[in-house]
From TrEMBL, chain A:
Transmembrane segments: none annotated. SMART domains: CoA_trans. Pfam families: CoA_trans. This is Glutaconate CoA-transferase subunit B. InterPro entries: CoA_trans_fam_I, NagB/RpiA_transferase-like. Coiled coil: none annotated. PANTHER family: ACETATE COA-TRANSFERASE YDIF, CHOLESTEROL RING-CLEAVING HYDROLASE IPDB SUBUNIT. GO terms for molecular function: CoA-transferase activity. The keyword Manganese does not apply. Keywords: Transferase.
TrEMBL record, chain B:
Keywords: Transferase. The keyword Transferase applies. PANTHER family: ACETATE COA-TRANSFERASE YDIF, CHOLESTEROL RING-CLEAVING HYDROLASE IPDB SUBUNIT. It holds the Pfam family CoA_trans. This is Glutaconate CoA-transferase subunit A. It comes from Faunimonas pinastri. The lineage of its organism: Bacteria, Pseudomonadati, Pseudomonadota, Alphaproteobacteria, Hyphomicrobiales. SUPFAM superfamilies: NagB/RpiA/CoA transferase-like. One of its GO terms (molecular function) is CoA-transferase activity. It comes from the Bacteria.
Amino acid sequence: MTAELDYTVNELVTALVASEIRDGDLAFVGVGTNGRAFTLAVGIPLVALRLAQMTHAPAASVYWGNLLEPDLSSIPDHLRQDSFTNWHAAASPADVGYKCDMLMRRQFDVSFDSGAQVDAYGNLNITALGDYTKPKVRLVGCLAQPEHFAFVPRPIIMTDLSQRTFVEKVDFVTSVGHARDGRTREDWGLGPGGPSIVVTDKAILDFNSPDRRMRIRSIHSGFTLDDVLGAMSFRPVVPDEIPQTPAPNAEQLRLIREKIDPRRVLLKV
Amino acid sequence: MKKKLVSLDEALGPIQSGSTVAIGGSLLRRQPNAAIRALIRLGIKDLTVQTWASTTAVDMLAAAGAIRRYEGIYAGMFGFGLAPNFRRAVQNGEIEVRDFSETAMVARLRAAGQGLPSLPIKTLFGSDIALRNPEQFREYNCPISGEKLLAVQAAYADFTIIHGYVGDEFGNVQWPIVRDSDDVDMMMGAASKRLIVTVEKIVSHDEIKRRPALTYIPGHLVEAIVEVPYGAHPVSTDGFYDEDEAHLERYLQESKTPEGIRAYLDAFAREPASHEDYIAKVGGRAALAALNVKQGADA
């Protein structure tokens, strides 16, 4: 064991996500919004994928927007349209129908998704809070998130832990996780899949429990079980022994800070 | 070939209140905002809109009280957050919403493009997007394989409005070699009945003919083509100009109250008699040139 390293939670979860990437994976990363939502949906996934490419998974690749295999060694510095237009990539298919077909044919391995609500069985809501026809809060809709949950074997949910977000039952099931209303995703007609892990600012959760209810997998250094449970509106499965989320090593931190995101554009907030 | 080059008001003239209108563009790219402002000025209302990832186009129409029903994959403001006026109208129960995921919307457009009533997907089993919309989604078993599928209704629109890059007077519209292809405009054009295209620039037919593979909307699909430089402002046209962040911030500021956005629409949509007047109102061509990117209109 080397001397204790100083790292941020963003760096911790970036290294964790990188370790989830296998060589040869094709990962879908969305185009995100701004602020913290951007860090979660775009920043951490892109840095993690680049880190995986530079360490154990050189053949991992990304579908970002409608760019297939964008060059992650030169991620744009700012987010205006022209940076996206001129980002070098292996392919930019004529339209997004191509990506939709690839999704339905199950050609992706990993995706990154966030939501306003996540429930105990991994259903996600990005459509509406309250009643669908006259909602309390109308959200953005759905984009391709239902596709990710339907067809991608290992979707990763990226969401900060809070009681408002982690609810027993989502108000509207945009994307079907492992089960809803007592029926499994297979009962509903979907193939295998559903979210693999939930990456939060306090803990990593998964669905490795007998009925695929959300379970605490590890807790980040500096947080307690009470911190985690206190930030959720439902009780997840709590194993007898909960390990600490593995810390990033010195080489991972060096790559993140010096090579991948030296100006702290992607892991800003 | 028939000449189809007309003014914006002539092009939009046939659109009546109560129509179903498909609107092109995606996120902060190529929203046909000049045409949308003209529809607001003309007082068109009660629309059913079909969109891909819509931002300003749907939000301005919602602010004008012009949308009866929305069908799309996304309505927001991309990096600027939620769509404030769309959100307010939906929360007030003023807009009937039907959400469609990306494979569902692609299937709807392809079905319309092929003259079919529906096409199947395998995506939305168990999702409230399908469960809450039994009129437009129906489960069935494939008569060949027996596999369970979900039919989704074709997206037939009375009118389709797309903002493109360049085109000729016959309505042939081309994309540049380097562009952001994260959209479905080609598909939406192919699915259209009456297609109105605004473009940044009208070029000669000779120029179009040299690279026919760049024509993503052939003139035979097009009812009217209009030259509308900066026609997507305040969002971008990739390869031509970036989004106008200051104007978008102002739009969001004005959108905080119904009175604010009413005054905004008066100033920028209802009072300018033409797109040229709008350009003058936002500082003129010289000011907008600051948004230009390397290739494109002035290259």
